């Protein structure tokens, strides 16, 4: 007997020596079940508002190049992030009147069989277009009445007030929509006021504490009236 699909077989429901029958679906004896595990399909629902706002990007298009398929990120119940990646397979052709959602499906590679049919999963679909943006540590952002700002370190190691426009948080970093340029250093922490000279201690982008003193910072250490402040350059990344 040959299985009609490749996949994982469940337990045997009939052992050797038992009487079985063939024929139609109602009369045939079930021997076992088999499920396909690679690739794995993930079904999820898109609310109507999201569907309307992003239908041009979310629906697969026959004219879209194959290598630009929309990315779907998936996380399981125990995951705090979305470690699995696949592509959007289809979007349904109607809205469910009871739930106000549209059914969609992603196809996920599963070569090691870790994903199992029936698992609960969370899906995240990137419906925007990729663009370059500035990312900063959110703790560097201050609020002044109705605006947000950062303190930018200028060429004279002076903290300058800079209003900025904020976007969402992505992977623990804050998106800056405007007001800051790539490579500018901002004050991350320290008792600093606008216009105050400081002794910057440059902190790598991927670290929240600890720092390596830059050559410029070392040259400024002789100014006793300059408070120390950790600074961090803005990082530019491609985001959706």
Automatic annotation (TrEMBL):
GO terms for molecular function: transmembrane transporter activity. InterPro entries: MdtA-like_b-barrel, MdtA-like_C, RND_pump_MFP. It comes from Vreelandella titanicae. Residues 133-191 form the Multidrug resistance protein MdtA-like C-terminal permuted SH3 domain. Belongs to the membrane fusion protein (MFP) (TC 8.A.1) family. It comes from the Bacteria. It is a lipid-anchor. GO terms for cellular component: plasma membrane. It is found in: Cell inner membrane. This is Multidrug resistance protein MexA. NCBIfam families: RND_mfp. Residues 199-240 are annotated as: Disordered. GO terms for biological process: response to antibiotic. Residues 69-128 form the Multidrug resistance protein MdtA-like beta-barrel domain.
């Amino acid at each position: 007997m040959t299985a009609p699909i490749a996949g994982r077989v469940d337990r045997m429901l009939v052992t050797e020596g038992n009487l079985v029958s063939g024929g139609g679906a109602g009369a045939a004896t079930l021997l076992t079940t088999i499920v396909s595990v690679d690739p794995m399909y993930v079904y999820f629902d898109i609310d109507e508002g999201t569907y309307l706002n992003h239908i041009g990007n979310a629906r697969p298009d026959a004219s879209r190049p194959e290598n630009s398929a929309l990315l779907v990120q998936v996380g399981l119940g125990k995951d705090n992030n979305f470690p699995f990646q696949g592509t959007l397979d289809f979007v349904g052709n109607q809205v469910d009147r009871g739930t106000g959602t549209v059914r969609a499906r992603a196809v996920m590679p599963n070569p090691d069989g870790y994903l199992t049919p029936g698992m609960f999963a969370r899906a995240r679909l990137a419906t925007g277009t990729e663009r370059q943006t500035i990312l900063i540590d959110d703790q560097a952002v201050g609020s002044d009445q109705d605006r947000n700002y950062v303190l930018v370190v200028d060429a004279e190691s002076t903290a300058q007030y800079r209003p900025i426009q904020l976007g969402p948080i992505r992977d623990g970093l804050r998106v800056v929509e405007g007001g800051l340029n790539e490579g500018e250093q901002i004050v991350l922490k320290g008792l600093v006021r606008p216009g105050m000279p400081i002794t910057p201690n440059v902190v790598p982008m991927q670290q929240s504490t600890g720092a390596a003193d830059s050559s410029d910072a070392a040259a400024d250490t002789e100014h006793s009236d300059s408070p120390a402040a950790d600074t961090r350059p803005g990082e530019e990344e491609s985001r959706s």
